[in-house]
Amino acid sequence: MKLGFGLYRHMLNEQHYKFAKQCGATHLVVHMVDYFGNADNSKSNANQPIGGDRGWGKAGNGELWTLDELLKIKKEINSHGLEWYAIENFDPSIWHDILLDGPKKEAQIELVKEQIRIVGKAGIPVFGYNFSLAGVSSRVEKPFARGGAVSVGMEGSVDEKPIPNGMVWNMVYDENAPEGTVERVSHDTLWERLQYFLDEIIPVAEEAGVKMAAHPDDPPMPYVRNTPRLVYQPDMYQRLIDMQPSESNNLEFCLGTIAEMTDGNVYEATNKYSKQNKIAYIHFRNVVGKVPNYKEVFVDEGDIDMFKILEILKQNNFEGILIPDHTPQMSCDGSWYAGMAYAMGFMKAALRAVNE
C-alpha cells in the first residue's frame, strides 16, 4: 500500500507538490477539471466544491488534455520525487451526451477513447470517473467534525430540484441551452447507458494500459435532483464489474461513501472487492451516520475503524494508493493544509503500524 495525495487543477504547482511530499506522499491523484468556477467555491481555501443548485461552474471547451500538456505536468510532478498515479474524472464537456444519451453521444465516445489513449501514452496508469447525472449534491457545510471543524454532510433531505438543461455532473456545458430540465429516467436506463460506455471504452483502456476506476454515488441515495444513481449500495459495484470483465474495469473505492450506504457494511465491501483485486485506489476518509443523515469527520473519529480497513487490505495484498480526498477544515490559517496534514500524518502512522 502506498500513500497518495489528491490535488485539484489549480493546485498543480510547486507549492502543492512540495506540500504533498512533505506530508509523506509518494503518488498523486490529479483532478484536471476545474470545479471551482462558481463564486461559492473559493480556490484560496479549497476544501471541496459545493456549488448548490448552480453547480460547480462551467465545464471545459470540449478539447482534450493533450499529450504535451500531460507530459509537462508529469515532468514537474516527477521533479519533486512524486509519481502521477491517476487522473480523476472526465471533463463534462467531452462526455455530457454519453451521460444523457444525447445526439452527440457517438462523437463524444470517440473523444473519450482518444483521451484514454493519450493518458496511456503519458504513462498515467489509472483514470477515475463518476458515471452520474447529478454528481455530488444535496450536502451542506456545517461544523460537523470534532471541535467544531467545518465539514460536509446531509441533514435528512435530498435535493429534488431537477437539473436544468445544459448542466450535468454539477457543471454547465451549454450556457445557451433551451429552458427546461433533464428528463427523469429509470435506473435501468442509466445502467444501459453505462453498459454502452463500458463496452466502448474498456477495450481501448486495455490497449492503452489504463485502468478505469468507477466512483460510487456520493451521497448514495436512489435519486438525487430527480435523476437515478448507479452505485448507491455496496453490492451494486459487483454489477458494474461483471458488465465488462477486464483488468481495466476497476473501482475508485471511497470508504466514506461506502460507509454512508444503508445496506451491507464497509468492511465486507472492502474485503469483497480487494480480494477480487478490483480496487484501483481508495479515498481514505471517515464519516458518522448513513444517508440521509451523515457527517464527514476527521479520519480518526468516525464510524469506520480505519485500522481494520488497513488490516483487510493487507490480508488481501492490496498494493494500490490511499488518498485523503478531503477532510474537515481546521480552525487556523491554512485550514485546508492543516486538515490534510492531519489526515496524512494519521495515515502514515497507521500504515506503518499495520505493516510492522
Give a structural overview.
With 356 residues, the chain is an alpha/beta fold. It contains 10 helices and 17 strands. It has helices at residues 14-22, 67-79, 96-100, 105-121, 187-208, 236-243, 255-260, 266-275, 306-315, 335-355; strands spanning 2-7, 27-30, 57-58, 83-88, 126-129, 140-145, 149-155, 167-168, 171-172, 211-214, 223-224, 227-228, 249-254, 279-283, 286-290, 293-297, 321-323. The chain has an 8-stranded parallel β-barrel, surrounded by 5 helices. Strands 6-7-16-15 form a 4-stranded antiparallel beta sheet. The longest helix has 22 residues, at 187-208. The radius of gyration is 19 Å and the shape is globular. The mean pLDDT is 94.
The helix fraction, in percent, is 25-40%
Using the alpha-carbon principal axes, give the shape. globular
Q: Could you give the distance between the termini?
A: 13 Å
Fraction in beta strands: 15-25%
Average the pLDDT over all residues and give the rounded result: 94
Profile the largest sheet. 8 strands, parallel, barrel
Number of strands: 17
**Class computed from helices, strands and strand pairing:** alpha/beta
Radius of gyration: 19 Å
> What is the number of helical segments per DSSP (H or I, 4+ residues)?
10
Which stretches of 5+ consecutive residues score pLDDT under 50? none
Order of helices and strands: EHEEHEHHEEEEEHEEEHEHHEEEHEH
Strand order of the largest sheet: 1-2-4-5-10-13-14-17
